[in-house]
Design a protein that fits this description.
There is one protein chain. The chain is of the alpha/beta class. The protein has two domains: about 150 residues, Ribosomal Protein L4, Chain: A (3-Layer(aba) Sandwich), CATH 3.40.1370.10; about 40 residues, no CATH class. Helices cover about 35% and strands about 15% of the residues. It has a six-stranded mixed β-sheet. Helix 2 crosses helix 3 and helix 4 packs across helix 5.
């Protein structure tokens, strides 16, 4: 599978032969859904908590005698039904993460990449480097390329000027190749890969 390579100025820069086992799969929605669910669950803090009846600072003395008052039987003012009492069945500190096999995660990334190729929303550039970190100049280049919502993946390190210019543009994400993930790929309309990113992906899935 061959795709054309362009520059940030919109000029042609040759073509590249993509690996069919990475970019030519038939996308499976179930794999992508499992991967996105795993990512979002893993990043949840899980630090929400409330005070239950053993945590509230209230007297443990019996409110009134057990029999003879005509009222319901109560043992402590910290019970959930009383104002100022503890919360019944409230959230506790926990991890929301669940297991997903490493091979499934790798396969989901391949399917996300293949989905972008199938939808013709994958753009390959030779490199992402700027002489100056000016946002205005980069916005003009993105307008020529038709990029309004995109994830841009560089090599092992992203050019400092490019990252500085792109960080103020809404719906534009810039990540090094180590940070590529299914959720960020799917949440943006287009995926922009550099030559270095493609080489790193092919080496990763060898």
């Amino acid at each position: 599978m061959k795709l054309d390579i362009t520059t940030l100025d919109g000029e042609g820069a040759g073509s590249v032969d993509l690996d069919e086992t990475i970019f030519g799969l038939e996308p499976r929605a179930d794999l992508l859904q499992r991967m996105v669910r795993w990512q979002l669950a893993k990043r949840q803090a899980g630090t929400h908590a409330v005070k239950n009846r053993s945590d509230v600072n209230r007297t443990r003395k019996k409110l009134y005698k057990q029999k003879g008052t005509g009222n319901a039987r109560h043992g402590a003012a910290s019970a959930p039904q009383f104002r100022g009492g503890g919360r019944a069945f409230g959230p506790v500190v926990r991890s929301h993460a669940h297991d997903l096999p490493k091979k499934v995660r790798a396969l989901a990334l391949k399917h996300a990449l293949s989905a972008k190729v199938k939808d013709s929303t994958l753009i390959i550039v030779d490199d992402v480097k700027l002489a100056e970190g000016k946002t205005k100049a980069l916005v003009e280049r993105f307008e020529k390329m038709g990029l309004s919502s995109a994830l841009i993946i560089g090599g092992a390190e992203v050019d400092v000027n490019f990252a500085r210019a792109a960080r103020n543009i809404p719906q534009i994400d810039v990540l090094p190749i180590q940070g590529i993930n299914v959720y960020d790929i799917l949440r943006r309309d287009k995926l922009v890969l550099t030559r270095a990113a493609i080489d790193a992906l092919e080496a990763r899935f060898q």
